[in-house]
Design a protein that fits this description.
Helices cover 44% and strands 22% of the residues. The protein is of the alpha/beta class.
């Protein structure tokens, strides 16, 4: 009995150690500002065209935003910060929970939708882009022109959705209203959901605009069913709860998004077609 108790305690401590290792403890903005320098830790949810590691370099809209934030702090606040990237994560729930447990100079990047519920758990930047969630199948799937056709045209098809995301809520809404028999299989990420669709012509999923257009650019056999579009979402960069980095970062981001340089970054990474859809969704 005592041996079992000791083993359970050791296991509990080991699991807690792992959890703590994945969270990040950085300095507050107040501390860095007073010192005049510091490290800014960056973690990310791997997202094509927003933030990904390519050839040893971090690329995408979010990576460019962070680099310009460094320049802003140096030029406007006379504070020198060094970006310290951590390994990217492919499991959204783990990424998000790690951000909830972090503190100080930590930023989380990716296609993270701002919601009222999440704003109670983490700090968000102002929105840096508008998103449209798209219902996606392989090209061979029958076209969906009305949502009330879903239970017949998608009969025998399975939905894949990343657990803990807004896509899960959208899919459950479709199931409740239009396709009660819809089978749903859960994945750890939106990219994994898309991978399942690409393997199975009888599969469908919701995808963010940026991931869908990345698939189109790679000439993947995907089809968008625009009748099920979910506009009105906004992506934000994430900071730990009650982060005092939020005001200075938002000051920078509001100004930066008004510049031609930011528009150029969006078109460079997302493409003109995706940016046009984003503009229409505002």
């Amino acid at each position: 009995m005592y041996k079992k108790i000791i083993l359970l305690l050791l296991l509990s401590n080991w699991l807690q150690t792992i959890a703590n290792a994945q969270t990040i403890k950085g300095q507050s903005w107040t501390e860095v500002k007073q010192k005049g320098s510091g490290n800014l830790y960056v973690t990310y949810y791997d997202t094509p065209n927003l933030i990904e590691k390519v050839g040893g370099k971090y690329e995408g809209v979010c990576a460019d935003i962070m680099q310009n934030f460094v320049t802003f702090l140096k030029d406007r606040r006379k504070v020198n910060v060094t970006l310290k990237y951590r390994d990217g994560q492919t499991n959204f729930k783990e990424f998000y929970n790690n951000m909830k447990g972090s503190s100080g100079a930590v930023f989380g990047l990716g296609n993270i939708t701002i919601t009222e519920e999440r704003k109670k758990e983490v700090s968000f930047s102002v929105p840096f882009m508008t998103n449209v969630a798209l219902l996606v199948t392989q090209k061979s799937a029958p076209p969906l022109t009305r949502l009330n056709e879903m239970s017949t045209k998608f009969k025998g098809m399975k939905a894949y959705v990343a657990k803990g995301t807004t896509h899960e809520k959208f899919m459950n809404s479709l199931k409740k209203q239009f396709y009660p028999e819809m089978p749903i299989s859960y994945t750890t990420s939106s990219k994994e959901a898309l991978a399942q669709v690409l393997k199975d012509p009888k599969a469908f999923c919701y995808q963010d605009l940026v991931i869908y257009f990345d698939a189109v650019e790679d000439k993947k056999p995907v089809k968008r069913h625009s009748v099920a579009d979910r506009p009105g979402e906004s992506f934000g960069l994430v900071m730990p709860p009650q982060s005092d980095w939020q005001p200075v970062f938002n000051e920078f981001l509001v100004q930066f998004m008004q510049t031609p340089e930011y528009r150029k970054i969006l078109i460079e990474h997302l493409g003109a077609d995706a940016v046009q859809i984003m503009d229409m969704a505002k």
